[in-house]
Design a protein that fits this description.
With 222 residues, the chain is mostly beta strands. It has 5 helices and 14 strands. The strands form 2 sheets. Strands 2, 4, 5, 6, 7, 10, 11, 12 and 13 form a 9-stranded mixed beta sheet that branches. The radius of gyration is 17 Å and the shape is globular. The two termini are 27 Å apart.
Length: 222
């Protein structure tokens, strides 16, 4: 799964994803958690950065209850599940990130790891989004991050990993003219392990109130 991630390079996000609109005063976040609002990229001729809440609430959910809030969707079933099937065809997004956290189980409990690209570049998770409205017509935009089976690096940490799209696949994922699941699901594969690094970090990340660059420091460097 993917339950925490990092978006620190906020000043570079709009340029990196060719977005003409971007939220004002977007601060770096080093411990993004579900229910927080973060920028996602959608294709609306041209790309736009839109603030959405992490944890998908389907448009049909009654009362917007958090019972329906889904932070992840499995790549293997996203084309079959009613909640995600239509979104896969028509409401795909990119979720910008610098890296993410995952916890490795061990004899002394779970140790958090920070995982990112070797070149520290901004990247995008494959995401889906939906629009929910309350009885007064107020709209809430929410998103979910798609996960897949782990690559060789992640297999030693967890049995799932978020789908990181290679840069040359981002445009295909956002392409509004592509609505066939059979053409989209082949993009939902593990990112090459040789392009990623992972290191154990402080358990300070376990507390969502902790949100600073110190969270990214490997234990050996602390």
């Amino acid at each position: 799964m993917c339950g925490r991630y990092v978006l620190a390079a906020t000043l570079a996000v709009a340029q990196r994803f060719n977005a003409t609109t971007a939220p004002a005063n977007l601060a770096p976040h080093y411990n993004v958690a579900p229910t927080q609002s973060m920028p996602v990229v959608i294709k609306q001729s041209p790309n736009q950065l839109v603030m959405m809440r992490w944890g998908l609430i389907p448009s049909w959910a009654k009362g917007g209850k958090t019972d329906y809030s889904m932070i992840n969707a499995r790549a293997e079933s996203v084309a079959q599940k009613p909640t995600f099937r239509k979104l896969l065809s028509f409401q795909r997004c990119l979720v910008p990130a610098d890296g993410f956290y995952e916890w490795k189980a061990g004899t002394n409990g779970k140790t958090p790891h920070y995982i990112h690209l070797k070149d520290d570049a901004l990247f995008a998770f494959a995401g889906l989004y939906d629009r929910w409205k309350d009885d007064q017509g107020h709209e809430l935009l929410t998103y979910t991050i798609i996960t897949t089976t782990p690559n060789a690096l992640m297999a030693g940490i967890h049995d799932r990993m978020p789908v990181i799209l290679p840069k040359d696949a981002e445009e295909a994922w956002l392409n509004p003219d592509e609505t066939e699941p059979d053409h989209l699901t082949p993009l939902l594969v593990p990112y090459p392990a040789e392009g990623m690094v992972a290191a154990p970090i402080s358990k300070a990340v376990n507390n969502v109130r902790n949100d600073s660059p110190d969270l990214l420091k490997p234990l050996t460097a602390q």
